[in-house]
Amino acid sequence: MTKSIPVGVIGAGVMGEAIIAALISYGVSPKVITISEKRKDRSDELSNRYGINVAEIDDTVSTAQVLLLVVKPQDIAGVLEEIKADFLPGCLVISFVAGKKISYIADLIGTGANPVIRVMPNTPTLVGAGMSAISCCNLVTAEQREFVLGFLGAVGKVIEVDEELQDAVTSTSGSGPAYFFRFVEAMVDGAKELGLSHEIATELTVQTMLGAAKLLEISGKSASTLRENVTSPNGTTAAAMASFDTDQISTIVARAMKAAHDRSQELA
């Protein structure tokens, strides 16, 4: 699959823009990318920023050989009903719609001839540090698969999983950034209670998180090993770890992830 084929993008919110940036970073020319977005001011903004085209949704679909669906789960049925007659035969459909199965997308399109790839990205894609997981239907060619792995890899890391694991992916990496942000909020609040200003508490916490994540990435050591290295017997960190264990942090996190997993299944 060449990087000069016509690409359509339906939905140009925050994630839609991140995907457009990924395509361009991968080498897809802005001249072959067309977006359809119901907010004219938003589509004009992205057109000016990236040099991409803007068109009505039926025109976007009828010319696209690759079509990216970046809409909310509650909107996808209406969108596909509107455009299902406009698909080119063999057009690759890439769905970023949370919780919606490949079979659901294929059934709504209705032709039975369009390969579908399901993607679960996350918001760090916006800063080139995303984590995405893809699942492919049996109509997807090796060339199409490599194209998707390629442009997603331009803005982070990407793996391929069986579709039955996508709900687990959603609860791990898809929702995961929010878990991190919530923990940062809690640390900042805790530091403020100990007397630090909001600004200093935030700087200390954010840089600590960045440094710890970088150490985990480049050290080659497990999180358990790195935690143990920091935790001296009867020291300050040991006291904090004991408090976490008393409050059953692993159970709290597992329960939260199960809730996200179950909600993803409900969205299907």
Explain what you see.
The chain is α/β, with parallel strands linked by helices. It has 2 domains: 7-169, Rossmann fold (3-Layer(aba) Sandwich); 174-267, ProC C-terminal domain-like fold (Orthogonal Bundle). Helices cover 54% and strands 13% of the residues. It is built from 12 helices and 8 strands. The protein has helices at 14-26, 40-50, 57-63, 76-83, 102-109, 142-153, 166-174, 176-193, 198-219, 223-230, 236-246, 249-267; strands spanning 7-10, 33-36, 53-54, 66-69, 92-95, 116-120, 130-136, 156-160. The protein has an 8-stranded mixed beta sheet, with helices on both faces. Helix 1 (14-26) packs across helix 6, helix 7 crosses helix 12 (249-267) and helix 8 (176-193) crosses helix 9 (198-219). The chain is elongated and about 65 Å long.
Which secondary structure elements does this structure contain, and how are they paired or packed?
Blueprint lengths: L6 E4 L3 H13 L6 E4 L3 H11 L2 E2 L2 H7 L2 E4 L6 H8 L8 E4 L6 H8 L6 E5 L9 E7 L5 H12 L2 E5 L5 H9 L1 H18 L4 H22 L3 H8 L5 H11 L2 H19 L1
Parallel strand pairs: 1-2, 1-4, 2-3, 4-5, 5-6, 7-8
Antiparallel strand pairs: 6-7
Helix pairs in contact: 1-6, 7-12, 8-9
